[in-house]
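Hi Y.,

Following your request, here is the sequence exactly as I used it, all 121 residues.
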Amino acid sequence: MHEMSIAVQIVDQVVELAGQNNATRIDEVVVEIGLMQLVVPEALEMAFSVATESTLAEGARLKIVEQEIEAVCRDCDHRYKPRIDCYLCPQCGQANARIVAGNDIILKSVVCETEQEAQLP
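Below is the corresponding structure, written out as tokens. Let me know if you'd prefer a different format.
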């Protein structure tokens, strides 16, 4: 299950960011995940919950935004959305694709609470 290693990396990054910004708690994490990564959202959410235990992110919400796969045909320069199992260009029929979207995992945002915010009534 590669979702656990992804979750651990996400938690490491957000905890480091929170520390750099003097946060006392992480409330929400938003990640964009390309479909080429073959991540099962439910498995990532479960792994994230486990990985956040005893950290500033414990109890944080994880929001996953899926990014579709986009490709450009190297033969005819047509931009299209291939399926994960078929990269044939719908215009020229060649399977000479350059993936331009859908292969990344991007940390989009982190919502944290600071000590000052925690003291407000």
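The chain has a mean pLDDT of 94.

Thanks again,
Q.
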